[in-house]
Amino acid sequence: MKQKLLLLLFFSLNVFAGNSDKTVQGPSIGLIMTGVFMDQNMIYFAFTIKNNGDQPLTNIYIDNLSENSSMLDIYYTFPPETAIPSLAPGEEDTISFMANKFAFDCYDMSQAKVFATAPGGVEVTDLSDPYDYYSDNPTESFYSPMIVLSINHEYHDNNGNSIVDVGDDVGYTYQVDVPFFSTFYISDENVTLDNAFGNGSQLITYGIHYITQDDVDVGYIFNGFNMDIDANCGFGLTGYDTPHCGTCPVASLPVLYPYTVKLTDLLPNRISGQVKFNSNSDNCASGTGFPNRKVVATGSSNSFATFTDASGNYEIYIPNTDTYQTTATENLNVNFSSDPASVSIVSSGEDVNYDNTDFCIGSATGFANLSVALVPIDHPRPGFSSHYRLYFWNNGSTALSGDITMVFDQNKAGFGASTPVQTTFAINTITWAYANLIPFEERFIDITLNILTPPSANDGDLLHLSATGTPVAGDAFPADNSVSFDQTIVNAFDPNDKTVLEGAFIEPTQTGSYLHYLTRFQNTGSASATTVVLKETLDADLDWTTFEPIAASHDYSIQIKNGNELSATFPNIDLPHSSANEAASHGWMIYRIKPKPGFTYGDIAQSKADIYFDFNLPITTNEVATQLAPLSVKSFAQNDFVIYPNPAQNYFIIKSNTAQTGTYELSDARGRILKRDLIQSNTQVDIAELQCGYYFITVESGNAKTTYKVIKQ
Question: What is the pLDDT of residues 308-331, one digit of tens each?
Answer without folding.
Answer: 999 999 999 888 889 999 999 998
